[in-house]
């Protein structure tokens, strides 16, 4: 077993699995915090980002290399825009959605973001997606429809499922814009440095939002489990998975690391079943399988320049 773990660590598979597991647990931690106390989404997100800020700063420090170049004014602007889209708006929409829907359904909806990236990129380049891509997107959305129908059956006549699904869909949409915007920037400044900078900037945005429009004075009244789940979310589902994913890309390449990431929705569904008591029906599993099948058919070609940049920065940061 130790030899297998060592081989998987050497070729990157262990880090890819750890990253997928960490990201998949985020929705479970959110639901556990909501179960511990009826905390507002903005308050919970602010706690997560407050705990994550030192870890994002650590990522910036870890990504330093002897030849690190200072950011241009344009790069700084892009980092703040990415922070607004990715870790701020996308996270805020997601936390709102999780007050209405299950963790398993949330992960399935978020997992649609590659189809959105493809459509946005097609609009940007004015080149229509291939027939294979259209087929893959159709499979994804049929699978999502099956999964949503399962939750609608469980909810009865209420509209909570549709409301929550809309919030999480908006989260996937803003994350797709974030993902699309990282392409050129990550080649220039590196994935770990970008994650640290965008994460730190998003912490400032979230905490500023919370101080201006939230209820900071209510924090002392929150029970300890809310702080515990927020801390675990910041460490295990935010900073460490970003670092593990960078190590996986270094060893496996971007495309193969993304393929291992297809474990995410499966891990979320089963973690939600084991830890939250969420149902696990044949209809839900069928929807899950279709969404995963569709996304794997959209697997992008590895960007050689981006992969080389990641390998360079990680080799330098570990020396």
UniProtKB/TrEMBL annotation:
Pfam families: EamA (PF00892)
Gene Ontology cellular component terms for the protein in this record: plasma membrane
Record's keyword terms, sorted: Cell membrane, Membrane, Transmembrane, Transmembrane helix
Main location: membrane
EamA domain boundaries: 13-146, 163-295
Location(s) in or outside the cell: Cell membrane
InterPro entries in alphabetical order: Diverse_Substrate_Transporter, EamA_dom, EmrE-like
Residues of the signal peptide: none
Gene3D superfamilies: 1.10.3730.20
Transmembrane annotation, as ranges: 12-36, 42-61, 81-102, 108-124, 131-149, 161-180, 192-214, 226-245, 257-276, 282-298
Membrane topology: Multi-pass membrane protein
Top-level taxon: Bacteria
Protein name as annotated: DMT family transporter
Taxonomy of the source species: Bacteria, Pseudomonadati, Pseudomonadota, Betaproteobacteria, Burkholderiales
């Amino acid at each position: 077993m130790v030899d297998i773990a060592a081989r998987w660590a050497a070729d990157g598979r262990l880090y890819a699995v750890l990253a997928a597991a960490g990201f998949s647990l985020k929705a479970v931690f959110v639901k556990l915090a909501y179960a511990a106390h009826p905390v507002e989404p903005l308050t919970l997100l602010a706690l997560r980002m407050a705990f994550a800020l030192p870890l994002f700063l650590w990522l910036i420090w870890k990504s330093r290399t002897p030849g690190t170049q200072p950011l241009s004014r344009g790069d700084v602007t892009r980092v703040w825009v990415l922070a607004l889209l990715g870790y701020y708006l996308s996270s805020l929409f997601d936390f709102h959605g999780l007050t209405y829907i299950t963790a398993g359904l949330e992960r399935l909806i978020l997992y649609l973001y590659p189809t959105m990236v493809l459509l946005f990129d097609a609009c940007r380049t004015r080149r229509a997606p291939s027939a294979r891509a259209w087929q893959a997107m159709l499979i994804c959305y049929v699978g999502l429809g099956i999964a949503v129908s399962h939750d609608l059956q469980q909810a009865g006549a209420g509209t909570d499922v549709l409301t929550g699904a809309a919030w999480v869909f908006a989260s996937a949409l803003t994350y797709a814009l974030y993902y699309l915007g990282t392409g050129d920037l990550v080649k220039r400044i590196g994935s770990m440095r970008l994650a640290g900078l965008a994460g730190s900037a998003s912490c400032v945005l979230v905490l500023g939002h919370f101080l201006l429009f939230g209820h900071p004075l209510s924090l002392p009244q929150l029970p300890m489990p809310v702080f515990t789940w927020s801390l675990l979310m910041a460490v295990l589902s935010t900073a460490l998975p970003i670092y593990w994913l960078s190590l996986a890309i270094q060893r496996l390449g971007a495309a193969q690391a993304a393929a291992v990431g297809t474990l995410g929705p499966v891990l979320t569904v089963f973690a939600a079943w084991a830890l939250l008591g969420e149902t696990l029906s044949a209809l839900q599993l069928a929807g899950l399988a279709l969404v995963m099948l569709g996304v794997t058919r959209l697997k992008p070609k590895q960007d050689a320049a981006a992969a080389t940049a990641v390998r360079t920065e990680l080799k330098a940061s570990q020396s």
